[in-house]
Amino acid sequence: MTERGQSSRGGDKRVLMCGNEALAEAAIMAGCDAYFGYPITPQNEISAYMARRMPDEGRVFLQSESELAAINMVFGASATGQRTMTSSSSPGISLMQEGISYLAGAELPAVVVNVMRGGPGLGNIAPSQGDYFQATRGGGHGDYRTIVFGPSSVQELADCMLLAFDLADLYRMPVMVLADGILGQMMEPIVLKEKPRRDLPAKEWALTGAEGRPQNIVRSLWLGEGVLEELNCTLRDRYEQIQKNEVICEQHDVDDAEIVVVAYGVAARIVCAAVQKAKQDGIKAGWIRPVTLWPFPIEQISKAADELRIFLVVEMSNGQMVEDVRLAVSGKAPVVFYGRPGGGVPTVDEIFELIKQLTLRSKTPI
Amino acid sequence: MKTVFERTPTLKDCPTHYCPGCGHGIAHRLIAETIDELGIRGRTIGIAPVGCAVLAYDYLDVDMIEVAHGRAPAVATGMKRTNPDKIIFSYQGDGDLASIGAGEILHAGHRGEQITVIFINNAVFGMTGGQMAPTTMLEQVTATTPKGRTAAGEGYPLQVAELLVTLPGTIYVERCALSSVAQVRNTKKAIKHAFELQLSGAQGLSLVEVLSPCPTYWRLSPAKAMEWIESHMTKVFPLGQLKGGR
Questions:
Q1: Is the Cβ pair B67, A102 closer than 8 Å?
Q2: Domains of chain A (ranges plus CATH)?
Q3: Is the pTM of the predicted complex or chain greater than 0.95?
Q4: Does the complex come out with an ipTM higher than 0.90?
């Protein structure tokens, strides 16, 4: 059994891994004690990898009978103070929303990976960003938030996992890593290297058997008058701290840009290439890539909107993050949306042409 | 003066929120006594259901968790798999375990999880106002079967214990009742045996089904409710050690 923060596969060596396997190995490195999951495409490499690797590391792997059971196994393991996770894809994450709400209410840490596919319903198994609303708005019932990462490379996906476990423990809440079918399946060279860790408080609330101390209770039911309101206010204060301290966002060439393109995840990689092409064409273009989708980089986008420029939001959906961009821009600049839903992936040229059109350049002759 | 009976320490000294004549108080005491007699308070984790017993942690002085409706066996699985040295028990009613949680109990039993399940069967949903449960008797009047349950309309009462007996992963299944002093004493023995099995590291799930009175939603006096368990419920839910004798 390896110590927390270690993995027999970790080190400085560059390795070629698909996103699903990389995030699984990163979870092991983060000290994940137990993985529970139910099969669904396009994230099945995660559970197959965990089934092989977790027992090797002396940790727990269990295939559950459903997503409902998986998230509740996570709930149980987390309540005893263990680091634990599950993974699924869109329809399965819908089934887990009840449990995620209970995790939020009971103030339990957990990491949930959603490798998004097309929806609604059974949808398809193509990559999508259609679950942004569900992930960033809480998804389940009640007044809560989840920290949400939207990584755009296999390396960043792995790095997010390390941070996700720390933030879950630090703020005692579920953290979601939002990938998509491309990122999960794509292979890239990565380095699985330990990063500096947060100082984490001892889990004095954990259920370990009440030996020599008063009982601990993990609960989300508060019937007394005003008691739940008090919990909600505590959570609200915590969420405000997170908004202040945990925003991660990348900005490129925003200062003198006449157009700023905002995108996350795989869509941001396509945007990056389109913006480079526009710059070669003499267009002053910049781009902003939120890495945390909640907390959302409101300040960064608001500041960028202080100068007169156009915002273009590109998503693999019918437009979800665009609402957060509009809220951040707050009417100070025009916000245009371009999306490809249902498994469609925008091409570099589609976005390049749109950038040209919005900055009043002539069309590329065919 | 000699003390001949006292409250067992793991049962808290507090007023009850249960209705007069309810069986939960008795069942709680039997669990608390078992934990104290086995000396396992410091390594026991209990799971409260959704239903009347959602506040079980207000009475049982052990580490406890309250979980989503029906999911206790999954939560117990997550706990036991990561803490094999702890004693994990779930306390579930018939709405919780036999209706919405039928999948979870079936698969926890199927996998042979090393947990102890105390299943309180009072043939109704209590907390929400006495609706029909899967265990409701034929002809029994409930809030949602105002003319009585019919086999054609709602199906037959679900025999959970008999269902779990068929799974290789279960090692001990017994059905008891709280209908008389003798039955209460027998229920205590069954609960204790189920805990002892887990304590010994026996491979598999143990379940004790407890036929328990709900005078409020049976529309009976507490005394008549006890009689009704024996005259009606035990005919459909026969008592006995169904699997793994003690």
A1: yes
A2: 14-202+220-245 (3.40.50.970), 251-358 (3.40.50.920)
A3: yes
A4: yes
